[in-house]
Amino acid sequence: MKPTNPLHSQRGASTVRVSAGIAVIAALFAFPQFVESPYILHMMILFFLSTLMGQSWNIIGGYTGQYSVGHAAYFGTGAYTTLILLTTKEIAPWYGMWVGIAASVVLALIIGSICFRLRGPYFVLASIAVAEIVRCTALNLTNLTKGAEGILVVDIPAFKIGETIITDFSSKVPYYYIALVLALVIIGVTWLVQHSKLGYYFQAIREDQDAAHSLGINLTIWKNSALVISAAFTSLAGSFYAIFVKFIDPSTVLPLDLSVQIVLISIIGGIGTIFGPVIGALVLVPLSEALRSNVITEGLIKIGLVSEESGVGIFLKEHLAHAHVLIYGILVVVVILFMPEGVLGYFRKMTTKKKGGEA
Amino acid sequence: MDFSVLMQAIVSGILVGGVYALIGIGLTIIFGVMRVINFGHGDIMMVGMYMTYFLFTLFGVDPFVSVLITMPLMFLFGAILQKVFINRILGSLPQNQILLTIGLGLIMSNTAMLAFTSDYKILTTSYSSSSFNIFGISISEPLLISFLITAAITIGLYWFLLKTDTGQAIRATAQDREAAQLMGINVKWMSILSFGIGSAMAGTAGALISPTYYIFPQVGSAFTLKAFVITVLGGMGSIVGATLGGIIIGLVESVAAVTISSDWKDVVVFSIFLLVLLIKPSGLMGKSRM
Prior knowledge:
The structure holds two protein chains of two kinds. By secondary structure, chain A is mainly α. In chain A, a hairpin with a 2-residue loop joins strand 2 (159-161) and strand 3. Chain A has a domain at 36-271. Chain A has a two-stranded antiparallel sheet with strand order 1-4. Chain A has a two-stranded antiparallel sheet with strand order 2-3. Chain A is 72% helix and 3% strand. In chain A, helix 3 packs antiparallel against helix 4, helix 3 (72-89) packs across helix 10 and helix 7 (173-194) packs antiparallel against helix 10.
């Protein structure tokens, strides 16, 4: 038997867990064969994308304890680099996204060199300020970014390997698979981080910077490493978003609200855990989409709680869709007040309590 | 650069800076007493703006007179927010406090969106665009009135904090919460009071800029950021610092708009913010709390 780390013994490669994981992944890969509804596929893609965003932030915020509220900067950099290269130089997105990652990594190192001198709330404020500078710059460099007008692409070039066309992006299915793979990759990366020396450095910094420093952990190097990993994947999420939605402008890919949403995915699920951001995305995406697409209002009308002709019905129909971020606000308040370890942490605690009670 | 244009920018910068100072003072009092950075500060201000708007359109109350109604109502609003939400997380991690106030801000702005739609509302008074000339510099009437009201409120607040027992108790709590508690000060009550005062200041600032600014649900976040810049520049927790910081940021914005370009003025402001954070994070008047 291999010696196992006592901290992770329950998380060890128990056969049940591994086979359950493989079954879920297989089901997700087979999913588009059975479900053709573009709406459901769209929701799944958003779920994978949110997982990617939340999990990327989790590496710097959850594992390393550096609450960056400026991750929109990397998301926007990925999105803009990809689409600018596509529209002006006709460079296909799967090359452009690497340039986007490179640009985001450089940006992360610059931001890191400024912000990591600061701690706690000052770090948070600095990360916001830098992201706002990036947003204002994108808004004003109209030659490059078209400013507030945004960049629109009509056609995404077909993805070819050699001469074989893999996909021409004519349906949602290729996006589904790309997003799924990206989500799996980031979960894998997080797992690797958590179980490596790197992850122990990160967590040591999170628990007590000064203690970590006195033990010889170089704070600058490891904080920047965490930020670079996080920024690279956030940038990838931005590139994916850009070719999926085909339109970007500073108010959709660079605003403070986006930075906040990225943090909330992770917080609501539970930070510093592998499945926290997945749970966060699983909770948030359906709820905010339900508000956005008026499903909730229609549901209320259907079950007869609200009449369609009544003032309330008309009002909800018209306005509820605009307030889909409301759910983020309510959830984060509930989570912080009642489940400070996130939804996942809360349920873990509940189940261990139960087990303890039975024993 | 024409000298009169620059003078013009300086004058209107100072006038706008007065209102900024009020926003900053609100944030800094809350931070001073509770060590909570209120990320919903701009949204509280937005609530004040809507309150003023509806007082004006429904009841015809002049925006500057409405301060008399807005201020106590916003004080109550803030006190309730503190009692119900903020109070529960006073001892917890700073990041959780930040996230809670972000969440409250999101709830406020999105509820406003739900109730009033995201349309821009404009409050037009008879004097909204009137101005007068002194030495060839035109001074906007609503800006001047709001500056004078701001000055009066700030002086009143100074007096309250320096001369009254309650004010001194608030300052004592800000200096050392435990020591204050040992001296028999009800620190919980001081926290409620200071969040109320902070919200009243933000709401009043909202009322004062209503005649010259667009009113919409998302207006808050820009002002939250501005409030951070102002308070960090002045020194977190310092009221004199926030007053100075507000005027300086008003000036910088206004002068940067005419000397560089109005598109880049936010970049200038945030760059100054970063420089202050890096060089002197304790700000102009504050002691370092790092």
